[in-house]
Write a structure and sequence with these properties.
Elements (H helix, E strand, L loop, with lengths): L1 H14 L7 H19 L2 H5 L2 E8 L5 E3 L1 H14 L4 E12 L4 E14 L2 E16 L2 E15 L9
């Protein structure tokens, strides 16, 4: 009986140390929506606003970009070369581990632009890691996995 009581206590106590939803989850979802809107406006300042200074992004074609400045520059370059480019990330799940001021975001993403040989539509799954720094939630890393691509030669090119 004593062992059962101890196990029950440990299970209940461990529940307080797991990821939770609440106001932080809502904040992260709002920040993701604002980042999507910034991409749609081609607003690099708005894009950079949610990125940690040392963010690590692994793109759908497995390119690695480290740092806020590099990632903002990458978007600026895309906006110049692909005037109608847009990406949207939709969180399916956000889990906050308040004890460590960290959160995970898992969802699906889409992108589209017009290339020289037609409209490209791409999408898949993504994972983001957030961290609260000085009271502000920032993206520490993002990884994008392609699952579909339709359109021109871009989709037939293996990175």
């Amino acid at each position: 009986m004593r062992t059962l009581s101890l196990l029950t206590f440990l299970v209940l106590a461990s529940g307080r140390l797991t990821a939770q939803s609440g106001p932080d989850e809502s904040t992260i979802r709002r920040l993701r929506a604002s980042s999507n809107a910034a991409i749609a406006r081609h607003d690099t300042g708005g894009i950079g606003a949610i990125l940690a200074s040392d963010v690590v992004v692994v793109t759908s074609n497995s390119a690695h970009y480290i740092g806020r400045a590099m990632n903002v520059q990458r978007f600026a370059d895309q906006f110049r070369g692909r005037p109608d480019v847009v990406y949207e990330r939709t969180p399916d799940e956000v889990r906050v581990f308040a004890l460590w001021s960290m959160a995970s975001e898992r969802g699906h993403w889409t992108g589209s632009w017009t290339d020289t040989d037609g409209k490209i539509r791409i999408g898949g799954s993504y994972f983001g890691k957030w961290r609260r720094v000085n009271g502000q939630w920032l993206v520490e890393s993002e990884t994008y996995v392609p699952e579909t691509c339709t359109g021109g030669a871009y989709c037939r090119t293996v990175p």
